[in-house]
């Protein structure tokens, strides 16, 4: 796998946004007394919606837009029709990174299956939280209700970064209707988060500080790629600046729960990720998952999905076809 200018562009356009969200993941976001996530003001919401709209313009036109009512709020889901039969893919982005982060991945993933993208509840995006989310179980419940509202009986979950944690958190608690789980460089699933990430994120976590501080952190997480003037990254920065997130910090998923996971699982680990010790993550994944369930991309950063979209889609295609073959 080699690096090139197009790959670096994809890295910026897709993967970089997920890393920004880790600032909120570790609980450094400034919170007020409201029990639910919200925009700071009407003007703040308008500013975010403008950036969200510019980022969404990078995606194909959705074939359907769904607003799914759950016990914790309304979840925005977009459907994109692909060209293959079988259970669809449901994509879960990183924290504070809504559906537009998949712009670089949809062309190749739509050759695999139909695709749903989800704006995570309680995050900047088009989902609207209206009840406190206080525990990991709450996080699983709203997603379970969302998936049960889709017309398909079974789906393949694909989660990126904290979206990987979100997918694993659900699958280890309520596996009904989940045909398989793909975890793309997930945080707090196979390894702990390094202290260095927390330290480096502190200056970038305050919304009133210069945008350049957040850009610097994002570039570090994506192997030094530039992040300026990228629609998806601008959307993430706007969300961090204009939206107050009120969610519990996720806890590390115990190994015994991952070992007992019922749906087939694929762990895709970035060898150069700064979000965990990659060697430790691979060792844990190989110990807890069946043989052949771990794919290491040795030269990838945490922005793996943006650096290697076609390779990732090929691995996902082989995995989901095999998972469905096991069910027959």
Structure description:
The chain has 328 residues and is an alpha/beta fold. It has one domain (5-327): Rossmann fold, CATH 3.40.50. Helices cover 40% and strands 16% of the residues. The protein is built from 13 helices and 11 strands. The chain has helices at 5-20, 22-25, 42-56, 106-109, 136-148, 162-171, 195-201, 211-221, 231-242, 255-259, 278-288, 304-307, 309-327, and strands at 38-39, 64-70, 73-80, 89-92, 115-118, 128-129, 155-160, 178-184, 243-244, 265-270, 294-297. Strands 2, 3, 4, 5, 6, 7, 8, 10 and 11 form a 9-stranded mixed β-sheet that branches. It has a two-stranded antiparallel sheet with strand order 1-9. Strand 7, helix 6 (162-171) and strand 8 (178-184) form a beta-alpha-beta unit. The longest helix has 19 residues, at 309-327. The two termini are 34 Å apart. The model is unreliable at 1-31 (pLDDT under 50). This is Pimeloyl-ACP methyl ester carboxylesterase. Residues 88-195 form the AB hydrolase-1 domain.
What's the SSE blueprint?
Layout: H1 5-20, H2 22-25, E1 38-39, H3 42-56, E2 64-70, E3 73-80, E4 89-92, H4 106-109, E5 115-118, E6 128-129, H5 136-148, E7 155-160, H6 162-171, E8 178-184, H7 195-201, H8 211-221, H9 231-242, E9 243-244, H10 255-259, E10 265-270, H11 278-288, E11 294-297, H12 304-307, H13 309-327
Parallel strand pairs: 4-5, 4-7, 7-8, 8-10, 10-11
Antiparallel strand pairs: 1-9, 2-3, 3-5, 3-6
Helix pairs in contact: 1-8, 1-9, 3-9, 5-6
